[in-house]
Every structure is written in C-alpha cells, then in structure tokens.
Design goal:
Chain lengths: 108, 113
C-alpha cells in the first residue's frame, strides 16, 4: 500500500500570500496518478488537480500542481478568502487507492 | 454534467449490514468506473472500492472481507454493502465518479444500537 504523508499539518497564511502544500509517497506513484482535493466543512471534496499537474474543469489558474515519483506539491499562488479549507492528496496509480491525512489551510 | 446521489438508511445496528445506493444522472453510467469512499467524522478519507459498469470490481484489502459492490446499468445505479458493521464504520459515505472526478453530497451512516 502506498502511504501518502502531507505536510504541514496546518498552514496559517493571509489572503494574497502564496501557499505551498507537500505530499510525499512511500513509493513511486505510477504514471503520476496523483490528485489534489479541497474540502470545506460540511461539503464533499472537490477535485482540483489530477495526474499531478492538470487542473480540473473550472478550477482557477492560481491552483497548480507539480511533482513526480514520490514528491508532489500543490501551490496556490495568491490566496483568496474562499481557499481556506482542508486539502488532501490521493494516489490512484496502484490499488488500494490512498489519501494523505490532509493539510488544513487556515487564515492567519 | 454527471450528478451522483447517495441513498440508504442513516442508522444501522452493530453486526448488521450497511446498504447504500448511488443514483447517477446527467450522464451515462456506462462510462469508466464508479467508487465508494468514506470519511469518519472529523477524520480523513478512505477508499472502499470501485466497480466498472461491466461489473469488474476492486476492493480495499482492509475491508474486502466485508464489502460487496454491484451495478445496475438499467437503473443507472451502483450499490455498496458492508457487513458486520461496528461503531468504527460510522462515517459519511460518498459515491464518486472514477477515482474522485465528481462526488455525491455524501450520506452519514451511524452504527449504533
């Protein structure tokens, strides 16, 4: 099973700042099949990034993904008030699919 | 745009079987595969299983002995059954298109007597 470790656990930033979230895999993620999700309280997760670096439909271009192998990054270039939420990474390259434990992005 | 809606009992007794159905609308269920993912209150996400519209399945080994997923293309529905539930199975259960492209709103299932 591929274990995903996200860091930091909590990130405190202000609107307008840049956010960098990390996801590290215990083994190489096949074909860079890694996704990033945003989840707000009481809502289902929403796909932001798939295949490590492709933005999902309707996702603003301030969200970007990068990485390959075992190290992946989600970057939010300029934080908007609506971006404060919990973010999860997920690998879907090998079974069982697994998620990271999440990074909470909070307003400083 | 495809929409997903979970349905089923919100309360299940310990040792019984949890049964949920997901109805797909706005698109054909005969495309790719469909997943179940759950999230215990205040915790992270756990992938349970997926099923192709052809009936091919893949289960999380941690739950495989208790899980069955099925699909009914004539009704545009796919289903989850989880047997011998305990309090640890209390969670919001999501039905999902593919690995996570589109999610249902989720349904909270509580295991309690």
């Amino acid at each position: 099973e591929t274990v995903l470790t996200q860091s930091p656990g909590t990130l405190s930033l202000s609107p307008g700042e840049r956010a960098t979230l990390s996801c590290r895999a215990s083994q190489s993620v096949s074909s860079s099949y890694l996704g990033w999700y945003q989840q707000k309280p009481g809502q289902a997760p929403r796909l932001l990034i798939y295949d490590a670096s492709s933005r999902a439909t309707g996702i603003p271009d301030r969200f970007s993904g990068s990485g390959s192998g075992t190290d992946f990054t989600l970057t939010i270039s300029r934080l908007e008030p609506e971006d404060f939420a919990v973010y999860y990474c997920q690998q879907y390259g090998s079974s069982p699919y697994t998620f990271g434990q999440g990074t909470k992005l909070e307003i400083k | 745009q495809v929409q997903l809606q979970e349905s089923g009992p919100g309360l299940v007794k310990p040792s019984e079987t949890l049964s949920l159905t997901c109805t797909v609308s706005g698109g054909s269920i005969r495309t790719y595969y469909w997943s179940w993912i759950r999230q215990p209150p205040g915790k992270g996400l756990e992938w349970i299983a997926y099923i192709y519209y052809t009936g091919i399945t893949n289960y999380n080994p941690s739950l495989k002995s208790r899980v069955t997923v099925s699909v009914d293309t004539s009704k545009s529905q796919f289903s989850l059954k989880l047997s011998s539930v305990t309090a640890a199975d209390t969670a919001v259960y999501y039905c999902v298109y593919s690995y996570g492209v589109k999610w249902g709103q989720g349904t909270l299932v509580t295991v309690s007597s």
